UniProtKB/TrEMBL annotation:
Family in the record: Belongs to the nucleosome assembly protein (NAP) family.
Protein name as annotated: BSD domain-containing protein
Region (Disordered) residue spans: 289-326, 358-387
Gene Ontology terms: cellular component: nucleus
SUPFAM superfamilies for the chain: NAP-like
GO BP terms: nucleosome assembly
InterPro entries tied to this protein: BSD_dom, NAP-like_sf, NAP_family
Domain BSD: 40-76
Compositionally biased region (Acidic residues): 296-326, 358-377
Amino acid sequence: MASDDQVPMLERAELPEIPTIPKETAREIALLEREFVDAEVKALRSSIPLLRPLYTRRSALITSKLAQSDFWPRVFAAAPEEIDNYILPSDAEIIGRLLKNLTVERFSVNEKGDAGEPRNLRFIFEFDTASEDNEWIEGDGKLVKEFYWRKSVWKSEKSGKRRVWEGLVSEPVRINWKKPEADPTKGLLGVACDLADAEKKVAKNGKVTAEQRLELPEYEKLVKEVAKVEAEAALHAECEGEDHDHDHDHDDSPAGMSFFAWFGYRGRDISAEESEAAVKDDDEYFGKIARGEKVEGDDEKEGEDDDDDEDYEDDDEDGLMDAEVFPDGDDLAIALSEDLWENALKYYVQSFEDADAFDSDIDIDMDDDEDDDDDDEAQRPRKKSKA
């Protein structure tokens, strides 16, 4: 038998070293991954002209035959978790009572589908502000938010290595609320819009510098508000983890705030000109790899630690990461465009099949237990169907 002081087996065993990928193989992998992405983007671009007339027909069908059955509120009611998780009970009430139309456009692609960035997105939300149920939004109720696919190439200040980021960026969209109490973002969206407006006033050559942004009082105010929301969300998560009693009206969204704060999402501060230059740089870089030429970073030793998460920590020179009101805004935009928008008819039909997800006056066979959840404050309010 082994003695009590014997060294554990895992400490005695000679475990194999973690294998490293040879530099040439890593270059081939990177090049092939890029070609996959390019092929997917081309396929998406070519599909858009084919889908546009179908979406037009769908819109006509909704307007002529389905508008009175709360089409878009029902679609949101049956949305997948990737979207539904971001919608609070207060958000659901606004969407259920006022949302009359949603349009998603990949507006940069031309009619032939052979040019234009297909990942650029335009969301058009139309709310019925003339409705007697409207307690929230002023104006015509039309909210337009655009997302642009941008790229950035830089050299890490810590490691000196080449780094590339690409993704969706946007500008905050202000919503005119009837009164402060009606704002589900608790003023956060307005503060984000105030900062964007202040930046435009001091910007030179169309873009504010990092120094200018950091000196703005609107920036300081927004950072404090974001930190406050994050602290409240962390405290709420801690309380839930300890199974403490908590207010069911508290934000249960992964973002820690209202769905309508999504209209304040910005992402990185990358202009169209900067992105164009980065795309050119990246094309040249991979062109050299394809030709077998030497590229930046070839002098690094194989097996060097490639875990460079810290390189990104110092990449917030413009301060926008600390001032981001909806960190998952790009993910939600993609989910809305690639899932909810494309599969709207499916989710509409599904809302009737899953009758419990949406209160309805439509004759559907179901148990008469509607009163069982009357005192469930956490249940999301839904609009009654007019059908």
